[in-house]
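Let's practice the habit of predicting before peeking. Look at the sequence and jot down your guess about where helices and strands might fall. Then scroll down.
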Amino acid sequence: MLHLVKPLRPQLRRLRWAHFKAPKLPKADAPPKPPNPPQKPESFTFHDHTWEDQYSWMSKLNDKVAMRHMDMYMEQEDKYTEAVMYGTDRLQSKLQSEMASRFAFDLSTPPLRFGPWLYYRRVEEGKQFPVLCRRLASLHDEFISHNSPSAGFDFTSGKRIEQKLIDYNQEAQRFGGYAYEELSEVSPDHRFIAYTMYDKDKDLFRLCVRNLNSGALCSKPQAERVSNLAWAKDGQALLYVVTDQNKRPYRIYCSMIGSTDDDVLILEESDNNVFVNIRHSKDFRFVTVNTFSTASSKVFLINAADPLSGLSLVWQCEGIAHCILEHHQGYLFLFTDAAKEGQSVDNHYLLRSPVDSSSSPRRWEDVFINDPDWVVEDVDFSHTHLVLTLREGRNFRLCSVALPLPAGKGPVQLKELHPQFLPLPKYVSQISPGPNYDYHSSKMRLTISSPVMPDAVVDYDLSNGNWKIIQQQNILHERTRVLYGTASSASIREETLSTENLNSTNEVSPDDEQLWNDLSEFYACEQYDVSSYDGVLVPLTVVYSRKNKKEDQNPGLLHVHGAYGELLDKRWRSELKSLLDRGWIVAYADVRGGGGGGKKWHHDGRCTKKINSIKDFVSCAKFLVDKEIVHENKLACCGYSAGGLAVASAINQCPYLFSAAVLKVPFLDATNTLLYPIIPLTAVDYEEFGYPGDINDFHAIRDYSPYDNIQKDVLYPAVLISSSFNTRFGVWEAAKWVARVRERTIYDPKRPILLNLTTDIVEENRYLQCKESALETAFLIKAMES
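Done guessing? Here is the structure:
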């Protein structure tokens, strides 16, 4: 279940050397020279291979001498980046102003109904962090507004209708100016909220429980390293999971709220390869416990009314499998991608079994007959309906069917249940379920995303098929045909954001498209199937401004991710508008290893087949140039985390193909990170990138690892890397890669390799987000002009 409040992230947390502010440098005739860090060669041998690493000292965090050298080196990198970007100050300022002007001024989340309450968060004027609030839905309906949820006064009680629950500005004072919340769960009786706050001094998440009536913090439970929460016993008990020193979730405790007794240990997994996760069913009848490793996956059930009564095993299978268990009116429903009869399956499927089943092992039956045309990507339950996200080819659909489902008939075709479809706009790239805490509500909240439409938060009424956009970033000003970004949110008429539609098909009429407020009149979206090196077709999405596109003249930015079976983020992003309006093409390569194509698509781009992700990306880049969609000398690329690995590896393979690249906290030193992890890795990470202990995996890692395959004596594109110590893959990876690229490749001051040192840039800090995006955009524009 998603959090009630989005993760609240902090102001820029400076690195230990990042307090250093390089002085403004006078413009010099000669280009600035890049730093030259010391080389301290160290030899490594593993399996049948020996290699030398001149920069391994950068990752020795416990070596004080090495870290002093690292401090000096990072200061030099900071100076060099500022010197290279000298002259772009005005451009960065202009870009930052453009991007900031497109943010909605309304900083409230739309109120979410949970029982008798409406919960929401809002940012008060002049404050850095939000406030979590609630109000009774029954009080003064005329004051309940998505635009101004805090308005209203109850004259009968003499109190404001709004009740402040957590002020994260005060939380920041408790946690040293840092207010990052990871988990947040309101108890089913609405008396307490359990949440975890990041303690930066100890580098862990601390559990807090607050009484919502008094506002006071409860004296217990008090726990550290908490990774999961689940309420039980109608809010009288809280179950939580803690991690070990390697951040492996391994223990489940039960705490009785208000009791002075010690918390009870319910489960402890001593096997270092097994991970633990918990969640409550939407009706709060059960708490499900998932344990998984590379060997097996298991699901246990805890009776929420008696959380100390023990665990009962309801499902197990071999290998790592995705398993989500729900309960509905006496039936357990399992949504999983586990193998069937020993055979791997390509997609998820839905099973059910009576709660009181006496068979051993428990018997499960399929709910739906497999339909290759409609792939079930996600499910969500309410008291009266089952909501399904479907994929039809590369197109997403969303429908609901009435509950309970027919019993005793066995698997059925979904079409036999007369699904009701929500009419969607064109080019939907993602459908994200909202928190949807209220099991008995007839409305389901969703976020609809598209490359040519700002995210639309929608309430879908399951009882009659009506749908309403309750929040969407400002689109048009007073219904005029002004390009997106020039109007304030206050100018948007209520009817623009509150439209209803009774169409129960998935066909979108022209009127429907108007109501979705997409930007396809101004920005085109085209989809291609690109043939990769082995003939496999790779989806490629291309977005451009209709006004500014010119044949074979446009610069382009190609995005990629391609890991963990995750969807590539193709949502409309306001910062990319600055490139689109300057004539850039923005493209997205859905390479193997990513999501949207089933388990086989994911597995064909991971581990020993990771090279497929990289070659797919290269094929898409060549397609953009060969088809003259992008000018042959003006193609840039961008990757985040594992996507940075794909980009850097593609540059190693075809450095001539790209003119510039932006890498955000990239995974670059695969061999050393997987062999000698500084930050603990999980079984899922090794499944994704390979087990170095296996000789075949080891050779595959060596073949794709960006740091180990930098070409000698060739010209590389201009590269901007943003990295930090506060990320999954530390700054030492980026620093080593930058140093080795400069050492081995041909130096060209017009194609600099830059290291931009930041900390966790987060959604909530809009100023910093704009600043970083402006720097990246200015870098790309400068690189193309060079």
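How did you do? The chain is about 20% helix and 30% strand.
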